[in-house]
Design brief:
The complex is a heterodimer of chains A (about 110) and B (about 110). Chain A has about 110 residues and is mainly beta. Chain A has strands at about 5, 10-15, 20-25, 30-40, 40-50, 55, 65-70, 75-80, 85-95, 105, 110-114. In chain A, strands 2, 4, 5, 6, 9, 10 and 11 form a 7-stranded mixed sheet that branches. A 4-stranded antiparallel sheet of chain A has the order 1-3-8-7, with no helix packed on it. In chain A, a hairpin with a 5-residue loop joins strand 7 (about 65-70) and strand 8. Chain A is globular, with a radius of gyration of 13 Å. With about 110 residues, chain B is mainly β. Helix content of chain B is about 0%, strand content about 55%. In chain B, the strands form 2 sheets. In chain B, strands 2, 4, 5, 9, 10 and 11 form a 6-stranded mixed sheet that branches. Classes of the chains: A mainly beta (about 110), B mainly beta (about 110). The interface of A and B includes residues 31 and 43 of A.
């Protein structure tokens, strides 16, 4: 089975712009979660989607949003980018919304905000 | 508030010896625990997990131990190999709440010296 794929792998944006990141889960996996990794805060949960519905949300401002499509692919959007949004954004998929199930991660999108 | 803590940012071990990575958690609702390995420029790779109904789980060279009363888990790698050099994250989730999100520690960088 192909793993979780994320596009693009690298992105450079300017403060105030917006960005959309894409994630394709493992075939058959219906739950997609997003995480932000920064050197200071480690890996932090952003939100989770299942059946096109956001099931769970972490402690991030409303500038961070996402959606899931009927084929389970997911996108994450960050509006009005700030320097502090520079991070590695990781997408993870699992077979179902509640487990226990392992989550399988993609390679991430490295976002740099200048 | 860091609910999962890895207090050792780094660990160096000789090849062939045992590596022991430690993790503590504070939330008594956590009932499923995982270890991930991460190489630079890649997403975390799932290694091994343990449910709170167990106190030990083995998979080849990797064994995870859970001490619920101490809210402590550890990952043992025996024997350690140079290819094990990576950052190791422990993660926890509260499956009983129906949530799927993972809470991560800040990671321990393991270096296995040939």
């Amino acid at each position: 089975k192909a793993g979780v794929t994320q596009t693009p792998r690298y992105l450079i944006k300017t403060r105030g712009q917006q960005v959309t990141l894409s994630c394709s889960p493992i075939s058959g996996h219906r739950s997609v979660s997003w995480y932000q990794q920064t050197p200071g805060q480690g890996l932090q949960f952003l939100f989770e989607y299942f059946s096109e519905t956001q099931r769970n949300k972490g402690n991030f401002p409303g500038r961070f949003s996402g959606r899931q499509f009927s084929n389970s692919r997911s996108e994450m959007n960050v509006s009005t980018l700030e320097l502090g949004d520079s991070a590695l954004y990781l997408c993870a998929s699992s077979p179902a919304p509640s487990g226990p199930y392992e989550q399988y991660f993609g390679p991430g999108t490295r976002l740099t905000v200048t | 508030d860091q609910q999962v803590k890895q207090n050792s940012p780094s660990l160096s071990v000789q090849e062939g010896r045992i590596s022991i990575l430690n993790c503590d958690y504070t939330n008594s609702m956590f009932d499923y625990f995982l270890w991930y390995k991460k190489y630079p420029a890649e997403g975390p790779t799932f290694l091994i997990s343990i449910s709170s109904i167990k106190d030990k789980n083995e998979d080849g060279r990797f064994t995870v131990f859970l001490n619920k009363s101490a809210k402590h888990l550890s990952l043992h790698i025996v024997p350690s190999q140079p290819g094990d050099s990576a950052v190791y994250f422990c993660a926890a989730s509260a499956v009983q709440t129906g949530a799927n999100n993972l809470f991560f520690g800040t990671g321990t960088r393991l270096t296995v010296i040939p």
